[in-house]
Amino acid sequence: MYINEPTPFIKEYVEELDKSLRKIGSGAGLSTLQKKWLAFCLLAIVVTNSVCWARFERASLGNYSMAALCWMFRKAKINWGLILHASIKVILWRYGIITGVLTLDDSEKRRAKITKRIHRAHKLKDKKTGGYINGQSLLVLVLVTPVLTIPVGFGFHQTDPALSAWYKSEKKLKKQGVAKKDRPPKPEKNEDYPTKQEIALHLLAEFKDHHPQIKIKAVLADAL
User: Fold this and answer.
1) pTM > 0.70
2) Which of 33, 68, 152, 184 is the most buried (most CB within 10 A)?
3) 56, pLDDT greater than 80
């Protein structure tokens, strides 16, 4: 399908998003070019059912090049964190949502065997097969309301590689009968690798800071 001009509802959404951004902070709004780019990308996602620059280019019959679309995503000075919460504000306002339940869950996403650019991609236990895969571990915060259910936060989890190596060595040395005093000490906590519980608490605090008007009836989570 050929796409070019965004639909009216997408244009309206982008304009409301821009207004919401400007209310959050000075200089957080979108430029005319950024709004045009974002509107096209949203339409392309709906039409192609994917997030793929090459498909977007083909769908526009070359009016938008893959290189230009990708460059805008990587280089434009857009605060994506604020865009998420500004978008949530737009949706909550549009549907008149004032209360709900927050749910937390974790999920593993399989990636290619060799990945160098995908954030926090690492070796994971495959729950289905019992083996191992290369992938990402995500924590997702979802707001459940009588009207709709939407994701309102997410974070990537990865165990500190140094800690993982220590556990592996510790298990091996214990099996060999090496005394505790002769085994390497446990590495100190690396703040760059927060636990799932720490990520979950951060997501809850972030939601509270950005959406204090929403009354939360309960917070649900598995054992994490």
Assistant:
1) yes
2) 152
3) yes
Total residues found in the chain within this entry: 224
Long-range contacts at 92-99 (CB < 8 A, ≥ 24 apart): 92/211, 92/214, 94/16, 95/145, 95/147, 95/148, 96/147, 97/145, 97/147, 97/148, 97/214, 98/213, 98/214, 98/215, 99/145, 99/214, 99/215, 99/216, 99/217
- Cα distances from 181 to residues 141, 168, 185, 186, in angstroms, run 42, 17, 8, 12
Residue range 166-191: mean pLDDT, rounded: 89
Domain ranges of the chain: 8-82, 97-158+193-221
What's the mean per-residue pLDDT of the chain? 89
The single-letter DSSP state of residue 163 is: H
Give the pair of three-digit tokens for residue 66: 């893959």
Residue with the two structure tokens 């192609």? 48
Q: What is the pLDDT of residues 137-150, one digit of tens each?
A: 899 999 999 999 99
d(CA 194, CA 119): 15
| Tens-digit pLDDT profile for residues 66-119 | 999 999 988 888 888 889 999 999 999 999 999 999 999 988 888 888 887 888
User: Got the DSSP string for 61-107?
Assistant: TTSS-HHHHHHHHHHS---HHHHHHHHHHHHHHHTT--EEEEEEEEE
Burial 167-203 (b: 16+ CB within 10 A, else e): eeeeeeeeeeeeeeeeeeeeeeeeeebbebeebbeeb
